[in-house]
Design the sequence.
């Protein structure tokens, strides 16, 4: 028992290393852009980025966690699909349809008592996100259609479909071209986090936006972790991801497994939509805009940086939110917003290269081994 | 003595295993030198070192008496070392000629010059009697011809040390004979051959000398002509091996598996399985013999549910399973040692332990309310590792992909026998295994039979067919052309049935 645990810890260190190296390479690259665009403030700029949310003190850290919340959920969505051999690039569509379900339920069911007024909309979002994910899942399992293509189509159908539904439904606010705001009782409560992450201006306490959504994201990560590593269901899903034919041979219903993987991935993204749009500060309604949700796509680098490990994804989601907050605070220096976007984007996408870094590390280790071997060979 | 290649005191370690422990191998010019050893004895590792795929942790390699370093296959190629891998490395939608020159193309001003290459390939083909069609695509030619293409690839690169890694595993008996002739022809032309195998008959037939490895250690090198098969196998396994399967006459009981009028249409409209009917009873081993590709694979796919049949009925233990799911058939007591261990038999990225429960993970005892019981899984795995002598670096935690082919096969056989099926379909269960392991698996099949199980064995090896079966069905072009008892038939007759030139009552 003791021995396995020791190996486990070594394993954790070994698996975190590639992610760390990818982050450092990304930061170096970001630093180069900082140097090119404004050499005088580059060092200061790097410090601001590295400090991320910490620039804003306790409230800033809270904001980091707030922005991390949907990223963790979409990262889980993508990472879970990766683990089961699927590429869920449809998180954006699942997120926005889930968000619509949440807002619609919250607005139309004001009679829901107490916490149910935000819990039921989240459940609605999870169900609708799951349904949205089931479409590529069905196409893949029954017709063999590549899930990437189906997911991309479902992203656009989701975005335009939601815009259309908002306009024909009773929750449309014509003047602002958005949905009406959900009632205050449907906004996600702080769950005690406002007592930890706040700033004090005079006698006024201003809490950060982080709320129970963060708990939900962490809980989801733990559930997915247990599902994948401890249950027979997770065993089946992973087996199908690794080798569909062998899974079939073993008697696993591989069509059902593919479908279930996509449904669960969709549920996670749907939940991300709910926690984003039921949050107090910049949520509570959906704007009618023709942009695919960036939180959906950012789930991909989050999953890659976390090497698809659910627990790793909690940290990679927080890290990416942290860097994004760094970009926000970078505005106080003399950098153009576009440059900031490029820098932050570069860091995030370099971080996503952790898989490549892992392979490079493996190759280097092999070469070193070879060189040692030759050295020893000569001694003989 | 004139040695072309000498590998002296080679040491190679992998995590948890010393694959090569002070191994010395000396290859004379113009000889066929067999490298004999059980699965996991270190043959492949040693050859991979010679071919530059691995670097040794110790020891030296000499070419023509001079010490050399082989960092990658390009170095090996430059030294004239070529290798035919067990699984061919060919581009399937390229032609034979394109495959041969791939990586050694003649280019003039950015343009590929094929004429010269074609002349050289045809000359080589003529000289060494390696008949190939240079313009045929790889996917359209037989396995035997693919192997000749691999040999031509080595010759085209002017290699003079040729490594054959278990070259006969994929060939029909006729193709094996031809390969043996080709190998002798090559050495007559001054090439030197390293021949990796664990088939003693083949060593006796072609090799001059034989080096034996056992569990990563060098046991010795013998002169093949003056050493008996029994002596060599004893060196390899470390004990005496019983070649003949020792079994009592069968006492067949009730019908456990019954197939009626099974027909499966192939991709080109022809019936790959054509109106096949037979029964397998409790307590008998029925063997389907035949040359590879005569419908045996499809027959098994239909029986196990991996493929849908077009017509016919399948009864398993009295129940109609014609349209039943794979899981339903498995749960009714069907075991299946599949033909393709990588495609069906194993989830290669799972650990050995996870593969051992591939068919039982959902059963009570291995799970509790949907949560897997890891302790039980590990216990069962450790038992099977012990019982079937499955060798792997880190026991049950070894990733299946990193295990040697023979040990992967043992793992599959262990799993299928451990679930104690009432009907066991074993497709080439001993392929790629050494004599010790074959003996053990044959024993297991006979024990299963004696315990009243029905065993359907699909084999390409005539020795296995004759030794093991109580009844032999011969398949030719999708039909059963003979239903005979092994004691009533000679190997020659079986060969005629298999080749379609003789038909008995089916």
Sequence:
């Amino acid at each position: 028992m003791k021995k396995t645990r020791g190996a486990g810890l070594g394993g954790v260190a070994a698996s975190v290393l590639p992610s760390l190296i990818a982050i450092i390479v990304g930061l170096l690259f970001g630093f180069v852009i900082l140097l090119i665009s404004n050499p005088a403030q580059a060092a200061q700029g790097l410090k601001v980025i590295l400090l991320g949310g910490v620039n804003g003190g306790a409230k800033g850290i809270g904001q980091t966690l707030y922005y991390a919340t949907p990223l963790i959920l979409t990262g889980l969505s993508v990472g879970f699909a990766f683990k089961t051999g699927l590429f869920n690039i449809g998180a954006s569509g699942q997120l926005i349809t889930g968000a619509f379900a949440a807002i619609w339920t919250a607005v139309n069911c004001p009679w829901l008592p107490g916490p149910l007024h935000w819990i039921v909309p989240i459940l609605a979002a999870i169900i609708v996100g799951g349904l949205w994910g089931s479409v590529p899942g069905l196409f893949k399992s029954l017709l063999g259609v590549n899930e990437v293509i189906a997911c991309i189509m479902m992203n656009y159908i989701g975005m335009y479909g939601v815009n259309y539904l908002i306009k024909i439904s009773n929750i449309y606010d014509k003047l602002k071209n958005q949905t009406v705001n959900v009632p205050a009782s449907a906004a996600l409560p702080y769950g005690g986090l406002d007592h930890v992450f706040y700033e004090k201006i005079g006698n006024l306490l201003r809490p950060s936006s982080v709320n129970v959504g963060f708990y939900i994201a962490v809980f989801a990560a733990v559930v997915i972790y247990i599902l994948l590593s401890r249950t027979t269901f997770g065993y089946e899903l992973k087996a199908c991801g690794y080798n569909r034919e062998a899974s079939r041979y073993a008697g696993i219903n591989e069509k059902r497994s593919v479908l279930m993987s996509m449904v669960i991935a969709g549920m996670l993204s749907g939940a991300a939509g709910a926690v984003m749009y039921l949050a107090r500060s910049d949520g509570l309604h959906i704007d009618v805009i023709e942009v695919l949700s960036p939180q959906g796509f950012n789930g991909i680098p989050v999953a890659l940086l976390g090497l698809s490990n659910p627990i790793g994804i909690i940290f990679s989601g927080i890290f990416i939110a942290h860097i994004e907050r760094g970009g926000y605070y970078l505005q106080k220096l003399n950098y153009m917003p576009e440059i900031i976007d490029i820098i932050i984007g570069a860091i995030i996408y370099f971080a996503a290269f952790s898989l490549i870094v892992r392979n490079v590390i493996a190759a280097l280790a092999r070469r070193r081994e070879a060189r040692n071997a030759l050295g020893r060979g000569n001694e003989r | 003595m004139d040695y072309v290649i000498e590998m002296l005191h080679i040491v190679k370690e992998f995590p948890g295993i010393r694959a090569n422990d002070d191994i010395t191998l000396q290859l004379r010019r113009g000889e066929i030198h067999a490298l004999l050893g059980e699965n996991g004895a270190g043959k492949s590792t040693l050859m991979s070192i010679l071919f530059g795929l691995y670097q040794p942790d110790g020891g030296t390699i000499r070419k023509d008496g001079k010490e050399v370093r082989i960092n990658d296959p390009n170095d090996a190629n430059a030294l004239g070392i070529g290798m035919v891998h067990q699984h061919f490395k060919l581009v399937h939608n390229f032609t034979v000629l394109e495959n041969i020159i791939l990586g050694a193309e003649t280019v003039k001003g950015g343009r590929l010059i094929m004429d010269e290459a074609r002349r050289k390939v045809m000359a080589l083909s003529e000289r060494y009697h390696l008949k190939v069609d240079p313009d045929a695509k790889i996917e359209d030619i037989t396995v035997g011809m693919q192997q000749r293409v691999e040999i031509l690839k080595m010759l085209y690169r002017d290699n003079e040390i040729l490594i054959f890694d278990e070259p006969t595993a994929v060939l029909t008996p006729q193709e094996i004979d031809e390969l043996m002739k080709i190998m002798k022809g090559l050495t007559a032309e001054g090439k030197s051959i390293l021949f990796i195998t664990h088939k003693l008959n083949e060593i006796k037939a072609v090799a001059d000398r034989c080096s034996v490895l056992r569990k990563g250690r060098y046991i010795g090198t013998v002169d093949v002509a003056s050493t008996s098969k029994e002596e060599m196998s004893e060196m390899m396994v470390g004990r005496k091996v019983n070649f003949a399967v020792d079994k009592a006459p069968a006492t067949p009981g009730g019908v456990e598996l019954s197939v009626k009028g099974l027909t499966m249409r192939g991709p080109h409209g022809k019936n790959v399985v054509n109106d096949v009917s037979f029964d397998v009873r409790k307590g008998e081993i029925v063997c389907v013999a035949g040359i590879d590709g005569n419908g045996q694979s499809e027959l098994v796919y239909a029986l196990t549910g991996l493929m849908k049949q077009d017509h016919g009925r399948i009864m398993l233990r009295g129940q109609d399973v014609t349209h039943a799911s794979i899981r339903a058939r498995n749960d009714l007591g069907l075991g299946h040692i599949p033909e393709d261990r990588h495609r069906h038999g194993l989830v290669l990225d799972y650990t050995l332990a996870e593969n051992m429960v591939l068919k039982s993970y959902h059963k009570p005892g291995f799970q509790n309310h949907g949560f897997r019981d890891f302790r039980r899984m590990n216990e069962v795995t450790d038992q099977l590792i012990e019982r079937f002598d499955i060798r792997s670096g880190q026991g049950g935690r070894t990733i299946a992909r990193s295990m040697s082919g023979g040990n992967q096969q043992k793992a599959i056989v262990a799993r299928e026998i451990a679930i104690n099926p009432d009907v066991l379909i074993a497709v080439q269960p001993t392929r790629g295994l050494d004599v010790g392991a074959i003996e053990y698996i044959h024993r297991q099949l006979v024990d299963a039979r004696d315990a009243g199980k029905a065993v359907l064995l699909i084999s390409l090896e005539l020795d296995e067919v004759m030794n093991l079966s109580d009844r032999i069905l011969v398949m030719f072009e999708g039909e059963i052309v003979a239903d005979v008892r092994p004691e009533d038939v000679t190997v020659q007759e079986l060969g005629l049935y298999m080749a379609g030139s003789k038909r008995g009552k089916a």
